[in-house]
Specification:
two-stranded antiparallel sheet, single chain, globular, HD-GYP domain-containing protein, binds fe (ii) ion, about 350 residues
Length: about 350
């Protein structure tokens, strides 16, 4: 490498920021220069205004560019573009091909969730997320017949589990609550919002930390208090009743003190305790969360099948909530195991 090239690499290492290539999904051209790491060196891989589509991005991923780099001062260009994208899709959700629209909405919503985790105090990002989640709820409520397709397409997008899990659990929740015929649409909507935002307190730890095998004691304490932190972050900023905030704070009905934060250890389970503090709403939000945690992979374990995760749900709830368990099984049977 010439001295000039060495200088150039050095300056790039100071000015470039790593981002997930998922931030370029749903765009038709690059809003800025995109760099990749090739043999330990930064290389321009897509010039500003290059045409991109899913094939181009898939090719890059297959060439080990799951993480790409952008100039720090251009990062906001991508965020602004994707947030506008989300606004547009949210407004026109019920127009056009439902699966296509839903797939895009889920992807963009997840991206915006990652922006929100980067700065949970940003009111504009939060209100965009809140509005989009509300629209998504009515979209899903009206269309249980496309839940399965959306679920499979969403899994394929391979989002980080901390963003995928609340979305999947809320998708299941809306289907189960609708099938129960116990709730008005407005009630389903509030529970959907509660479920979707319940883990936002996990943003106190950087996303990369979740990929580590072990966390420090301090990080673990922070993580275990995430249900309360979620409510603190959202209090007074989104429209939810105190009862819904209470559900959010109690969404871990089963032990938090397991290696896999959202998957309980059944050998240490205390049914009585869970029963005491929960109504059906808290129980169903907690259980769909456990299922969504199990079917999304972790760095230290593979994803479990939907079928096997229902087996665990059976252990957790069939004694105390036999009717409700049956209802859940009926939902999964009619939507996912047709
Ligand atoms: Fe949680």
């Amino acid at each position: 490498m010439s001295a000039f090239d060495a200088l150039k690499q050095n300056s790039l290492s100071f000015s470039l920021l790593p981002i997930s290539i998922r931030e370029l999904f749903f765009l038709t051209e690059t809003p800025c220069d995109i760099f990749g790491m090739v043999d330990g060196l930064y290389k321009l891989i897509l010039r500003e205004h290059s045409f991109i589509n899913s094939q181009v991005l898939r090719d890059l991923i297959s060439r080990n560019h799951s993480t790409v780099f952008v100039q720090q001062d251009r990062r906001n260009d991508i965020i602004t573009l994707q947030q506008n994208n989300l606004r547009t899709v949210t407004r026109s959700l019920s127009i056009g091909d439902a699966v296509e629209k839903g797939r895009k909405q889920l992807g963009l919503l997840t991206l915006n969730m990652s922006y929100l985790y980067d700065d949970p105090t940003d009111d504009e990002t939060l209100s965009l997320q809140y509005q989009s989640v509300k629209n998504l709820c009515s979209f899903l409520y009206e269309r249980p017949e496309i839940h399965e397709k959306l679920y499979h397409d969403y899994i394929k997008q391979k989002h980080h589990f901390i963003f995928a899990q609340p979305l999947l659990s809320s998708l299941f929740l809306v289907g189960i609550l609708k099938m129960s015929h116990l709730y008005s649409f407005k009630e389903v909507e509030s529970l959907f919002i509660t479920s979707y935002f319940k883990d936002i307190g996990m943003s106190v730890i950087p996303t990369e930390k979740y990929d580590q095998r072990t966390l420090s004691d301090e990080e673990r304490v922070l993580l275990n208090s995430h249900p309360k932190t979620s409510a603190q972050i959202l209090q007074g900023r989104i429209q939810l009743s105190p009862a819904h905030f209470a559900i959010m704070e109690n969404h871990h009905l089963f032990s938090l003190l397991t290696k896999d934060l959202h998957v309980p250890d059944t050998s240490k389970l205390d049914h009585k305790e869970a029963k005491m503090i929960s109504g059906f709403e808290t129980m169903v939000i907690s259980i769909t969360d456990v299922i969504a945690a199990m079917i999304t992979p972790r760095p230290y374990r593979d994803a479990t099948s939907l079928f096997d995760s229902l087996e665990l749900a059976k252990v957790l709830m069939s004694d105390d909530y036999p009717g409700e368990f049956k209802l859940m099984v009926n939902y999964f049977k009619s939507v996912f195991f047709k």
